[in-house]
Structure prediction request, 362 residues.
Amino acid sequence: MIATDMTALNTTDIWTLLACLGLGCVTLLTRGFFIAASKPLHLPSWVQRGLHYAPIAALAAVIVPEIVMTQGALMTSLLDARWMAVVVASIWYMKRGSVLGTIVTGMLVYLPLHVGLGW
Amino acid sequence: MRSLRQVIAHPEFAVGAREMAHASVGILAWGLTTGMVLSNAGLSTFEAVFMTIVVFAGSAQLAATPLILVGAPLWVIWATALCVNLRFIVFSAHMQPYLAHLSRARRIMYSYILGDLSYVMFTKRYQQPGTTDDERNAHEAYWVASICTNWVAWMVGSFTGIALASWIPGEWGLGFAGILALLGVTLSLASSKLRIIAALVSGAIAVFAFALPLKLNILSAIAIAVAAALALEQGRGYVRRKP
Prediction:
């Protein structure tokens, strides 16, 4: 990168914009997959069944390392605000079923422990 | 096919707008969180606004942003977002017969703003695709009102979040709100034993394969978890219910 550290935060990166354009295309492709087609399409049955597992697998693959790892290694101390927040937030979700409530309860546990105690 | 003005004038338009408006507080807040997380994670204001408008998919944006910021290859970023978005293909298949009579340009426009909540509300209200012009017009009016209200609430929330982010110190770790949002979505998808197994397998592999280059731990985790779920499904002679 040519940008210095001072300007890096507010510099727009062509590569990032390209990544976003591609993300937009990928998203439109999935949303329009059947709607935009002129004739009804048929997917092989194993693909159709796979569609039911891929989204949850993708989300789990993204979030689990963010919860239990620190700088590329499993967390070494149980005094970590993240798993505690996740447990409380998950319990909230199972009782109330609201994503918004999950974020709020999780952050109410996370912020005091993380900002206050440094966990 | 009716003009957009006729679509808006249809009485079902007001119904669709009203039903979505009731859910708008939640969408606003979720957009607000996403906007803050994008900016706080390190995207510039322009990048965050650009992404919000072009992509318009909260979970995919939150999943892709950390990958973009560590410089993962484009195909890994796109493939990960594709997997997060695969649920849309299921929605798309379900919505196809309701919209098939419209022009392709209009169908593509309606696809771009297809949101999870609009899909759920619409298919709950209209269990069968329309067979007469009256029904089809009513469906289209409700659909347009619902997706547009959703889009506006999401954009207002996201832009407010992006604007507010610079006032919040990075060390607060606000990005964790994005993880919690994805956690909520993950739990909402955990509707069967095999899906839960897929999530656990995927999470474990993403951690143990973390050292793989190019963030390939994520794609390998997805591939192995889906294969494992399909194998278990087959092994059990498990009969899946129609979505």
User: Anything to note?
Assistant: Chain B touches chain A through 93 residues (CB under 8 Å). The radius of gyration of chain B is 20 Å.
